[in-house]
Fold:
Amino acid sequence: MIQVQARTEPSTLMTFASPFLAIVLTLIFGSLLFTALDKDPLQALHVLLILPLSDAYNISEMLVKMGPLLLCAVGLALCYRANMWNIGAEGQLLAGALGGSTVALMFVDSNSAFAMPLTLLGGIVSGMAWAGIATLLKVKFNSNLILTTIMLNYIALYLLIWAVHGPLRDPEGFGFPESALFSDATLLPVLSDSGRVHLGVVFAIVLALFAWFLLAKTHLGFKIRVYGADEPAAIYAGYNAKAISWFVMLFAGALAGLAGVSEVAGPIGQLTPNISPGYGYSAIIVAYLGRLHPAGAIVAAIFLAILYMGGDLAQIEMGIPIAVVGMFQGILLFFLLACDFFIRYRIVPLREKMA
Amino acid sequence: MSETLKNQSSSPRLELLNITKQYPGCLANDQICMRLMPGEIHALLGENGAGKSTLVKTIYGVVAPDSGQILWDGHEVEIKSPSKARDLGIGMVFQHFSLFETLTVAQNIELCLSRSQLHSIGDLAERIRDLSATYGLNVDPDRFVHSLSIGERQRVEIMRCLVQSVKLLILDEPTSVLTPQEVAGLFTVLRKLSSEGCSILFISHKLHEVTEICHNATILRGGKFVGDCQPANETPATIAKMMVGDLAEQDAGYEKAFGENIVFTAKNLSLAAKHPFGTTLKQINFELYKGEILGIAGVAGNGQEELMSIISGEDSRTLKNTLILDGRDIGTQSAGLRRRNGLAYVPEERLGRGAVPEMSLSENTLLTHSRGFVQSGLVNWKAVKEYAKSLISQYSVKCHGEFSEAKSLSGGNLQKFIMGREIGQNPKVLICAHPTWGVDVGAALAIHQALLQLRDQGAAILLISEDIDELFLLADRMAAVCDGHLSPVVRAEETSIDQIGQWMAGTFINESEQQEALA
Structure:
């Protein structure tokens, strides 16, 4: 017989092993899923996980997908560290895209050097404003942050759809729900000739490293960690709880907004109704897969970006529906949370009762 | 007294043989043997973590022992659950009561009776009144529990055991929440129960109570049985010596001190309760002088928590011109600003408030002590670690090092660490709540000496405690709180345990109201 026993101290080994265990279990159950769909599981896993890294073009496409995932995940990791359950990265990303596009469209016929910085600023401020609404409701009225951020995601989505059908629609676009193409002065520079890797990807990595520094080395980062780990201790120590809440939420909003504007002013080049395949939601998985640590988020964002790429390729090469990628992500998060159980508990054989 | 006991009956009511319980990383009980005769009042003594709680939980069926035997009236039994224990006739009153505040006394008692028990009792309220009269418990079955004082609630818990015809009553630190007068009342009840043949197992930290009431005592240390004695033949000092060596003797007879310069004033402090069962503070006035310890006695829940959180600033409601620190109005300042202006605070809960459980001791040092360790927003972790190491050695905190998580420390060691951290900030005023609650004698000595040293350096200390002996040991001036009122403040030498005990029960409230009416 076996028995579940609480560990006296959390296991460091399991803290790091749990994501890998979860990935292995996901691969096993994913294979069963593909078998049930009458697809060759080995070929499916190859397309899903190996092919995205097979050549320079695929790698660059993977990095393009990693950028927004990482930006959103770093902000979320900080929020979750401070016990602020922000599920609204998707809405903040869309708000950033919408706000950035509004600025970008003022520079359609311009070569101004300010075009790109102002566009980025527009996106960042919009993302912060969107996060600010939920934060205000939380701080002033103690409303449930999970609910308000999720609802604001939908509001942002429909606001964006309204804008591309209405005020931001290209007057010469034959009635399609799209904005005019942004001018070259507005677009983020591409870093290499062969792919679409743009400045936004660099922002993501730099900001992830900055967040790491913030948590590890600064007094503010320490206060964030205390506030998340033990709120009564933070109040006892005299930390300003409201200021910490505002900081992490606005930081997350700024990063998600930057992710959104980097998409429209990067690979897409205009505002369309489908600018995000759910980056803001997948970023929640990235944040947890990366152990709420900014450095971990880099590794996790690459993994999820590979899955996104693989999903596209699997659709093209094997006719596997894109929804399967969503299921794959769901299985991964499920196993991740399940494996985390072993950080605080262990399973031991039941001892025979001593006589 | 033990002579008569032996005559009453020759077979023990309860016998424990080689009880052993292993928790992860800790052998809580190691081959413990104990014997209880009918009608015996037996003390179970030991420092914190000695294994007393584990042992009584084993008897009450909450914890299953790994090995060993329990004999009840001479027969081996396996007590698998508290309800099995109650069927045998074992009753237990825990330190933290398990009563529903919104129900009446009778309803609370009814809840833990089985259908057949209820049937055999008949009219429960009548039975409660009968027992109440027989034992002088003074428990009214129709009152709501939230309207009862702590002492009354404890009597409800005892009543709950009595209605089930208890043969062994276990009391876990029953006197720690009572006024001296209530303790005397409790002892009368226990003696009557004992004379009727009920065995009583009594856990306490207060040794003079043990010598007063207990026939026999079993002493545990580090999970092991270290000896037994007849407390009537011993003094508190000799028993303490058996528990911990000879530290207890050193912890006595400190000099009193009196300050002259006021450093902190609370003026007409009135504040509505935040929670339905909280206490409203009513017109509290006191002054703190440099270089003195002001002790505030009181039964838990009479406004101490509210008073501390409004002074520390944790309660963020602002008050104008009621709290003056060093000539400055701090009533409108945030908790962080008050700290920077020289206020330090040792809270009642160490883990989860005074220290973050999952963080290391160096991180917990930075929690409240950031002066000198933060420059332009960046933490100098190397300096923090060095300082944490010096705190650990200066206050003899037993741990693996400054990297140890706070939750890996025992209560006493963590308290020494927190005390050192707060004192290390050279506060002008230190608020200190229950500094040695649940702390072993050795750590208590160290904490007492640290407090006195801080006082002698010129700081003012507001000491809030439920332990009257400790207050008389340390405080230079004393007062008591009751129901949100503060009694007059008097010199410790000019008052008595009796007077403070009456103030804790609120006798001063009518006096002061009468005086107001006259004036």
